[in-house]
């Protein structure tokens, strides 16, 4: 059985996966650029610290049997929305491992062909 018969389906699958990866990557980059313009200036760590501070203030208010301040509640809700919108998943990069596998297979096929 020729090696090209075994490698052809892998090559087609890798090319389609690479196209999908590049399309998803450009979509994610566009969304990130759009979010940079509309989002607050807090980074991921600063956002987490601000949310934790709001929750701590609310917890202290609950322990004193009083309602938390309205501005803290409003700020926590705004920060929660910002955290949800900032959590866009990165495109899956497993295609890079597939491309590496195809390249290794092609090199091995050429090396074995050269021996015979």
Which structural traits does this protein have?
4 helices; 116 residues; rod-shaped; mainly alpha; single chain
List the helices and strands in order.
Answer: HHHH
Main sheet characteristics: none
Instruction: State mean pLDDT (0 to 100 scale).
Output: 78
What percent of residues are in strands?
under 5%
Coarse structural class: mainly alpha
What is the straight-line distance between the termini?
Answer: 15 Å
What is the CA-based Rg, rounded?
25 Å
Q: How much helical structure, as a percent, in the residues? A: over 70%
Give the overall shape.
rod-shaped
Task: State the low-pLDDT regions, or none.
Answer: none
* Count of helix runs: 4
Per DSSP E runs of 2 or more residues, the count of β-strands stands at 0
Question: Can you characterise this structure?
Answer:
The protein has 116 residues and is mainly alpha-helical. The model has no long low-confidence stretch (mean pLDDT 78). It has 4 helices and no strands. It is rod-shaped, with a radius of gyration of 25 Å. Helix content is 82%, strand content 0%.
Task: Summarize this entry quickly.
The protein is mostly helical. The protein contains 4 helices and no strands.
Give the helices and strands, then pairings.
Layout (H helix, E strand, L loop, with lengths): L2 H36 L5 H20 L6 H17 L7 H22 L1
Helix pairs in contact: 1-4, 2-3
